[in-house]
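Self-study notes.
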Amino acid sequence: MNEESHYRALQKQDKANRQLIKKLQLERDALKKQLRISDVSQKRELLLAYEQSKCPKTWWMSKSQAECEVDDFLANNCG
């Protein structure tokens, strides 16, 4: 392999590495966005459903308390 072809091979590998890095950065940013509590906080019903799933037999007794707790959590953490 002569010097010029070796140089081209290195350039090609460098370009592939840069594309991979960019792709991984985009995926990381997308995952960060999915995991932000402010994105999830808009789903009050989802949070209440989770609370209900923790205690389905006594949900009717704790529903208003859970609603208050979820609302307080959202107000304090997701302003």
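Second protein, same conventions, sequence then structure:
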Amino acid sequence: MRRLLTVLVGLLTLAGAGAANAADRGRAEAEESAEIAGYTISKVQRWLHEVALKKIEPGTGLCHPDGNFNYQDAWQGG
């Protein structure tokens, strides 16, 4: 019985260590993903301010990516 308890305690200890290592790996992956996401969001924000926001028509608030917009295009089924 004592040997069984020793084996069980050993297995639980290994399982706990494995869970801790998995948590550490998960945190490291999350930190790496956050760094990549931060860089990506920064690039999108820069593009938004340098390109997209400059193409919004002040009177209507509509965006014209190529500078030309035919209002009839909005009503044509496509």
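Instructor comment on the second fold: Residues 2-70 form one domain.
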